[in-house]
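re: ur question from earlier - yeah i can do the single chain one, its not a big deal. heres the input i used so u can compare w yours
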Amino acid sequence: MVLTSRGLPQIRDTVRFYDGDLAHLVNEQLRPRHTHIWLVGGPAVIGAALRAGLVDEVRVSVLPVLIGAGIPFFQGMTQDVRLHLTEVKAYQNGMVEMCHEVRR
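and the output i got, formated as tokens:
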């Protein structure tokens, strides 16, 4: 499934687009059928999922490249989200992946 901010036509049977409420998608459509749900996305998707209380774990990868300008890491955050570091993995190419548990 591909999350989108606008309605897109379905061009393949194997790909579905979703442009509705993220909480409805997760709670009503995905949770009844799946034990683990993995959302991959940019700042808008992750920010919306965090605001809706849908996130149990946040994985962040840091690449060895500094970008001079860009968009906020998590868009639309109005409250702090407490995290607890549970795992760190460093790769030979310099990338570091961190896993944090969301504290409620």
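The beta strands are 2-3, 17-18, 57-62, 82-90, 96-103. not sure if urs matches, ping me
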